[in-house]
Design a protein that fits this description.
Two copies of one chain form a homodimer.
Chain A: H1 4-7, E1 11-15, H2 24-34, E2 40-44, E3 50-51, E4 54-57, E5 68-71, H3 75-88, E6 93-96, H4 106-121, E7 125-127, E8 133-135, E9 140-142, E10 150-159, H5 162-172, E11 179-184, H6 193-202, E12 212-217, H7 223-235, E13 239-244, H8 249-259, H9 266-276, E14 279-281, H10 284-294, E15 304-308, H11 311-323, H12 333-341, E16 353-354, H13 361-373, E17 380-384, H14 394-406, E18 411-414, H15 422-430, H16 439-451, H17 466-475, E19 479-480, H18 483-492, E20 500-503, H19 506-516, E21 520-525, E22 536-540, H20 543-554, E23 561-566, E24 571-579, E25 585-591, H21 594-597, E26 603-606, H22 611-619, H23 624-628, H24 638-654, E27 658-668, E28 673-675, E29 678-682
Parallel strand pairs in A: 1-2, 1-5, 2-4, 5-6, 6-7, 10-11, 10-12, 12-13, 13-14, 15-16, 15-17, 17-18
Antiparallel strand pairs in A: 3-4, 8-9, 8-11, 19-29, 20-23, 21-22, 21-23, 24-25, 24-27, 25-26, 27-28, 27-29
Amino acid sequence: MITKELLDPESIVIVGASNDTSKPGGKVLYNILKNNFAGKIFGVNPKEREVQGVPCFANCNLIPEVSLAIIAIPANQVEAVMRILAYEKKCKAFILFSAGFSETGAEGKCLEKRCVKIVNDVGGTLVGPNCIGVITGTYKGVFAGPIPAYDPKGCDCVSASGATMVYILEMAIPRGLKFRDIFSVGNSAQVGVEDVLQYWDETFDEKRSSKIKLLYMEQITDPKRFLKHARSLVNKGCRIAAIKSGNTEAGSRAVSSHTGALAGSNSAVSALFRKAGIIRCYSRVELVYVAAIFTIPPLKGDRIAVITHAGGPGVMLTDILVKNGMKVPQLQGDKAAMLLSKLYPGSTVSNPIDFLATGTAEQLGEILDAVENDFEEIDAAVVVFGTTGMWSVDDVYMLLHEKMRTSRKPIFPILPSAIQAAEEVSHFQSMGHVNFTDEVSFGYVLSRVNKMKPPFPEAVLPKIQQAKAIEIIDQSPKGYLQPGQVFELLQSAGIATVAQAVVTSKEEALLSANELGFPLVLKVSGILHKSDSGGVVPGITSFQLLETVFEKLIAMPGANGVIMQQQLTGSEIYVGAKAEDKFGHQVLCGLGGIFIEVFKDISSGLAPVGRDEAISMIRHLRSYPLIKGIRGKEGVNEELIVDAILKISALLQMVPEITEMDINPFIGNSTSLIAVDARICIS
Amino acid sequence: MITKELLDPESIVIVGASNDTSKPGGKVLYNILKNNFAGKIFGVNPKEREVQGVPCFANCNLIPEVSLAIIAIPANQVEAVMRILAYEKKCKAFILFSAGFSETGAEGKCLEKRCVKIVNDVGGTLVGPNCIGVITGTYKGVFAGPIPAYDPKGCDCVSASGATMVYILEMAIPRGLKFRDIFSVGNSAQVGVEDVLQYWDETFDEKRSSKIKLLYMEQITDPKRFLKHARSLVNKGCRIAAIKSGNTEAGSRAVSSHTGALAGSNSAVSALFRKAGIIRCYSRVELVYVAAIFTIPPLKGDRIAVITHAGGPGVMLTDILVKNGMKVPQLQGDKAAMLLSKLYPGSTVSNPIDFLATGTAEQLGEILDAVENDFEEIDAAVVVFGTTGMWSVDDVYMLLHEKMRTSRKPIFPILPSAIQAAEEVSHFQSMGHVNFTDEVSFGYVLSRVNKMKPPFPEAVLPKIQQAKAIEIIDQSPKGYLQPGQVFELLQSAGIATVAQAVVTSKEEALLSANELGFPLVLKVSGILHKSDSGGVVPGITSFQLLETVFEKLIAMPGANGVIMQQQLTGSEIYVGAKAEDKFGHQVLCGLGGIFIEVFKDISSGLAPVGRDEAISMIRHLRSYPLIKGIRGKEGVNEELIVDAILKISALLQMVPEITEMDINPFIGNSTSLIAVDARICIS
């Protein structure tokens, strides 16, 4: 819970305040004082009566009542101090810099829990421990810099790693990014990323809130709450970019080592982000580029004018945009000719628009006006403009500033001369602009942002036979269900299963064949990996063949029967699900067989998967053309796959005991999709 | 041809010299003077008798003999000046800044050719036109900055775009990269990228030459010469990174617009780079990161210790390394425990090694010593170390400097505090080190560099029946060969083709069936896309079926016969070739059918493809597991595919008239690989 006292404290005490700014308690005081905190501020330090010009008390018993405490003392002294502050000094907000809590083991974990209890007792907020602090509109409660300029429309940030927040700022500030609230939540003992999201969501104000949210996380403790508030924020017009690291085994080893967090499944995180409409980033530089793109009005289309006075960067930018699905349409006709006539000879306007090394601010103005007014086929402009170092490019950047202010179409500035145009770039940024330095990184990230879809709407799931499903589960022991029960459970969700019979004698087999009709597939029952061991025989078209094959299968070691199924024609489709701890279930789909095994061509969504998400899952498969059908070969009815995913989603909702489920395969064609083999495991 | 006069001129004349450093003729003079050129220097300018303190002549007739001319006057005056300089002043080297030549059209192209002729007449060198100039150990002949510090072991560069060279430097210098020779070749009228490579190759000196070469190109004019010298340089120990842009249609439109160059096929360029052992980059930032990695001794293995005082960056770095195939091995046992005991409580050494925000230089020393001496399972270390801004990290960076100097294992520094540790980073770099600022970009690029293979050795090709092949080609009109000739040509290269007969009557069909034996495949002849229209019927197992199918096929509109083939069992394999203008032939392979059509899973090599390259092609297919055989399903004999690629390579060498060739498919299994259908087009 984030209290008013944390956001806008009337008074602050620094416990561990110091004159030494190489200590956290000294540096945070320095930062707060330097940045004009308007409330009362004082320190606690047994050795000082005054620190950096503010009163200092020997211990917490001596201080007046206080709204916010920033604590920078060794872990073993923290609890006692917090008791006094919470219970006696009406303190309702705590920022705990100190390390030495849950990240160090069981003992630290207990200490951390006791501290949280103290804060909860008084309905307060605890940020940290093991964090660098908080920045809000009223104070800079951090000990680590750099301290960004405060901008009410700047990026709101929350980071589970203090150092990473610092290094994000080290990269973002030179790019011209502005910031608003920053929360370094450290061990997230009480306030975690979800709480900050909830606070942003619940206090969102169309006019006053920032619409850019940046997240760095190493775990998602409460994915459902995370989804709820992230999706709500995006639906309110916010744009969220987030890094979730610790995605590999070695990476998550690092995570658990340094914050005691356990990493979730990587594909579940991606599915969660897609569901919420969050752009997933994998590096600081990517996060900073995405954030910078967020500061510019969103694209309304994917058709870009690449404008440059330098050939190469324009070519590289065009390549990366086109490679990633954006368009750089050729410009032709009268209006293009008219524009060309206003540029120096040798210029080209076919897009990229290259107005040569000698190109002027005035010419750039003509180009941007033409993009704005004359070329309907263009949705946005990217301007790459640096300097040879021979003259100032300030006039060009002022022109760019003016056009960015007035143009309906977004204009993205790439100003590559970090050294030679440092002054002009700095002037340009001082007027509130960001700057992208590498055109290819920009182009890649722009295309990612442009591909981003809004959050999937709440899933509307089909009705299933709930009572029947629960009855089956209740009757089954934990572990893998029996084949018959698997099919019954699928049927309870309305999923078609192949007509089959399980037989143990030749006589039964012949009788069943009469009922099922030929052709048949025979499968040995009781043996894992039956395909590999020759336990699956398709193409049984006669009683004679049936007898021979039945005898062969039933004689296999471990066989406890033979499954006889109608042989269907079509393509193999895989649909599955997997319990992902707090994430709920991940639902998976793909073409069966080698497409999954060799090409790892699987889409995933997070249950409950609704119609839009199911369609998106199917269409994101690389093998989607095969589902549509290519070269006259019959495909698979997409609507039936969507239907199956929704039904499975509904089943998972009713029967959360399912830990693992593989329908592998369905056999599908243009008119039917029938489950032929399936495994379900319950817990 | 690159002359001594270009590299180390005794005297330089600036034609168009000026006191105004906002003009190229002023700025280049300023740069040369400022950087202490040791020879004679003077200007030509009708309005001045002295420029920037050096003598200035009214025209070229008045000047003494001179080694190198740097020309910065309008294009229409250039030819006359060059005549005087070349024919009368013994000038042997020309750097031509002026634009307005081949990039502007036919007239400019003629002018450019005449200028080249003048230079060739005197056995001289011409760099440009439309370039920013040349930097060597003796002078800085460029008008555009920034000017990098000269280092004999720094990066050698050649760029076909002056602006791109400038912007590469803008990015590289702040990273600490040092440079040696820089050639901006502009329109490459005489000296192109290939000439610079040839010069570097032919003058390579193990002790004195730089071993890092960076290239920016928009076309490869002479791929064979390019390959020859690039491969030779890499074999001599050089490491080459190159950008070739203009890879998309829109991108190559930009290329042709601004330098008049035509872009080659993108996959042919990649194949060429692989053959030469060049790392292909797609952005300036990637090129700079690769170059910076090149300054550090090469990895001898892929096992990395990630060392940091900041959790998050270590986690993200670990994730990206592991995701891209590197290893971050867990460290355990006595030596790990010993190391841990030397660090502050709460540190972890399991790798990532996190020695906390409070970690000291001394502790970093202990860690790096342990990596060097105690952990055999580690090949290199990456150190991520920034600052909170509370104290100087100079001692840490000095320690890092010392360890990088003495360690046998490579150490890569990632110093993310661009703002707060600017001074310390600058001090660190001043001792000759590079710095990587983003750990993920670094990790990605390191893994790419580590995956890089040495150049493929010269291809040794099998002998083929050359006379027969040439006879077939001589007898055939241009265009697609007749099916019979296609098979004959393949047979001349020793490629097995399926037994088949082309028949036009039922009687012939029955006779041929007797010879070929069942099962058969029948294919209609004379119709394109025969599969799609039902013109291919497999599974003919009886004379009766044969008659029925024959009649159906021969009755299809456009049918001129029926091809009868033995029906083979196995997987479809595709091998093909495509003439790529100056690149020669690109050889392609993949699994047939949907793997090519839907998954675009094709490998390519540049003819002549030798054994190593063929193996690499096959193993880089995503579908390679299917070739090896999975889940008990028979694969395809890899050696037979290699053999087929080599034979096709040999055929292409003998018959360069082949413009296109598709053997689609071969049917392959563990013992045979037989061409079943093929098309060959000749010109």
